[in-house]
């Protein structure tokens, strides 16, 4: 009997498979197709000949832990203890899975905001717990009245995602004040904050849970080197949590992966001395602006994009078909792969929206836009 009877092959796998079969341009999955920084690949080449091929400490490579501490301190003025409050993970998905498995018990409830990324629900269900999914407003701002109604005595965790995948929306100061006021009423609830696109924002500076002292003692913040440094295949992320939560998280982590790839950790540790994460927002804003310019004469209506490397677009002026069918036809007839937004909702809410990934080289974006403008 399946533990996840209603979960099948992910839409990301399906769309990428179809893109290959039909030789379509893949703007569906969120991974870049441009080269990795040569400084990083040079480090990787050099250190691969050194004696760094055995297990590292379970929590992470000690020099890398110190670099992450400095990164958090510089970016958010938060002082964390690397020995007790930090864990290097095999990507952000593993960090999220591990935190949920460690802290959510049978019959607990976990509140998450739709549209929500697909890796949140499965680990909750594997705990024999319940997800309570609350729709964001149609402009993708949190509806705090609805969110508060979703809380109960069974609520153990709330999951937030900022900057938000798939919509590119970022939270405001008022959102965090509302969150803090809500959590004060439920002192037993812990917060899991998915911030993998924290350095990819445009306009207002990203507000992190790292900058909210009221939340420190009850929050886990998930970050991703894969997203930040265009190395998604390396699967290296990290999680920050107070010691009393991290003790439980590490218990699960040690039996999932024990320790994360040694070469990747050492290479990233060196690379952090050379790179400035502050430059990422500018780099991706140029990509976003260029992609939007290329599509300005198309029949797609482009939604606001405040962060991430995703652009949501309405196809309502093009077709009345549901978004999954539209995305399939977009591949088979027009040679471009996108992701339907309905798959991020519990009730498959269809607003005639699709998500494009613009983390691609300009040649790819230009050819994709040419095909999309011809529709």
From TrEMBL:
<dbReference type="InterPro" id="IPR015424">
    <property type="entry name" value="PyrdxlP-dep_Trfase"/>
</dbReference>
<dbReference type="InterPro" id="IPR015422">
    <property type="entry name" value="PyrdxlP-dep_Trfase_small"/>
</dbReference>
<protein>
    <submittedName>
        <fullName>Methionine aminotransferase</fullName>
    </submittedName>
</protein>
<dbReference type="GO" id="GO:0016212">
    <property type="term" value="F:kynurenine-oxoglutarate transaminase activity"/>
</dbReference>
<dbReference type="InterPro" id="IPR004839">
    <property type="entry name" value="Aminotransferase_I/II_large"/>
</dbReference>
<dbReference type="GO" id="GO:0030170">
    <property type="term" value="F:pyridoxal phosphate binding"/>
</dbReference>
<keyword id="KW-0663">Pyridoxal phosphate</keyword>
<comment type="similarity">
    <text>Belongs to the class-I pyridoxal-phosphate-dependent aminotransferase family.</text>
</comment>
<dbReference type="InterPro" id="IPR051326">
    <property type="entry name" value="Kynurenine-oxoglutarate_AT"/>
</dbReference>
<dbReference type="InterPro" id="IPR015421">
    <property type="entry name" value="PyrdxlP-dep_Trfase_major"/>
</dbReference>
<keyword id="KW-0808">Transferase</keyword>
<dbReference type="GO" id="GO:0005737">
    <property type="term" value="C:cytoplasm"/>
</dbReference>
<keyword id="KW-0032">Aminotransferase</keyword>
<dbReference type="Pfam" id="PF00155">
    <property type="entry name" value="Aminotran_1_2"/>
</dbReference>
<feature type="domain" description="Aminotransferase class I/classII large">
    <location>
        <begin position="24"/>
        <end position="372"/>
    </location>
</feature>
